[in-house]
Amino acid sequence: MHLSKAQGWAVAPNEAASPFLSPTFFARFSHRYLTCLQPVTLDYGSMSEPLYSNVVSKRKKTIKCGCLAHSRLSENESNCHTSSMSILAEHEYAPAVETLESTIGDDSRPVGIVMGAGCSSSVVLGGKPLIASIEALTADVATEVRASPLGVALDALVATHTEDGNAKPTIEDWLSRLRTMASISGDKSTIRGIASADIVELEEALVTSIAKRVSVDLPDDGGGFDSLARWAAGSNRRHALEIFTLNYDLLVEQALERHRVAYFDGFVGAHQPFMDTRAMEDDNLPIRWARVWKMHGSVNWRLSDGTVYRTVSGGSSSSSAGSLIHPSNMKYEQSRRGPYLAMQDRLRSFLRQPGAVIVCLGYSFGDQHINEMIAEGLSGNATAVVFAPLFGELSKYDEAARLAKRLPNLRLMAFDSAVIGGREGAWRGSSPVDNFGKSPELGDFNQFAALLNRQSIGAANA
């Protein structure tokens, strides 16, 4: 739908333009804007800048509303709150990819990457995933533990989830419940059929089994990890790249080191590196250093006397005993909560920055804590945006879709459809492709790597 200047509008929609205001401009004028649907271009006096789709002016007739639900907004109308509406529509795939690519390529914006389990499971070695999916990992760990004397305790633990309505708990559900039980067990002999001593031993057995399976080395063909590291190495940004990984493995660290990308992960020292939360908070490090935040702990973290240490290795040759791994829902003693909360603070701080951009890769929106921080950050910062390419069909991601329909600056891009500007809709056309002939499969980490490779080549030729 196009409105002309003759109708009192200064501009028309521009899907191809990068739909984001500069942080400085937005900070000056954000209080004058309301929610809308389509990317438009702003002509404000002598200033002409792209405008993100969740904004429309009510101050003057300077911006055209390009959404399907509204034909026009007058000077004082404020009825375009489409972030709370669910409007079925179609989305153009090529402009959506162009928007994503141009946004993360804007070196003036802080860029962060959230990495979920799908990234690690995308690396294939010998015809199978290097690290199993969370479901397969749960099954493998269960098989090992059930073959031990703790099998009865694990069955009792699984039964508690079934009784509470969770028919398919994962290892993270198990760890979260065990640690909650441990915190309240006291002198009780059993809790819900599990002996107090078995609670502690079962947790240790689960963590050891998990760590053993994810303590692997990145193969020569590191897939998306290599592409991400090359992209980070070739970037000349005004803000440090921040990586928020939910995985326990060391694949992203190995990839960064392979491509000589300096990074800071919260630890200092050489003989026995320890976590320094003050250094994390101050963040007085060179911009060219990436930041790597392990949101759920790591196979090479150890807890001793209330301090978290990082072991030197953590790959296939390292011991997995005593690894500090956090489940997504965590309630236990402060010594363990400290590192986890420090990592959460980094994500919150990042999302508060003007113009912050996050790309979620391999993330299914199954971590409620992370979801809440993303929602809080996007609600409180209209200049921030989160892109989330999803693996498979959108129907598999009910929680993500619910959030995106409420938050117009959360953009979901699944294989078959998307939620953009609060609207859910299929990709337009029978065989949608981007400007490079690629189909809508950016939710596959290895396919997203092609986008990063294009940017790396572009940066090298610049």
Main attributes of the structure:
462 residues; alpha/beta; Rossmann fold; 3 domains; ten-stranded mixed beta sheet; two-stranded antiparallel sheet; 14 helices; 24 strands; 36% helix; disordered N terminus
Describe the protein:
With 462 residues, the protein is α/β, with parallel strands linked by helices. Helices cover 36% and strands 17% of the residues. The chain folds into three domains: 81 residues, no CATH class; 275 residues, TPP-binding domain (Rossmann fold, 3-Layer(aba) Sandwich); 83 residues, no CATH class. It has 14 helices and 24 strands. The strands form eight sheets. Strands 5-24-23-22-21-20-6-11-15-12 form a ten-stranded mixed beta sheet, with helices on both faces. A two-stranded antiparallel sheet has the order 1-4. Helix 6 packs antiparallel against helix 7. The longest helix is centred in the middle third of the chain and has 19 residues. The N terminus is likely disordered.
In short:
The protein has 462 residues and is of the alpha/beta class. The chain has helices at 23-29, 93-104, 117-121, 134-146, 151-163, 171-185, 196-214, 224-234, 251-258, 277-282, 334-351, 368-380, 398-406, 445-461, and strands spanning 33-34, 40-44, 47-51, 56-57, 89-91, 111-115, 124-125, 128-129, 190-191, 194-195, 242-245, 263-264, 267-268, 274-275, 290-294, 297-298, 301-304, 307-310, 324-325, 357-361, 385-389, 410-413, 417-420, 423-427.
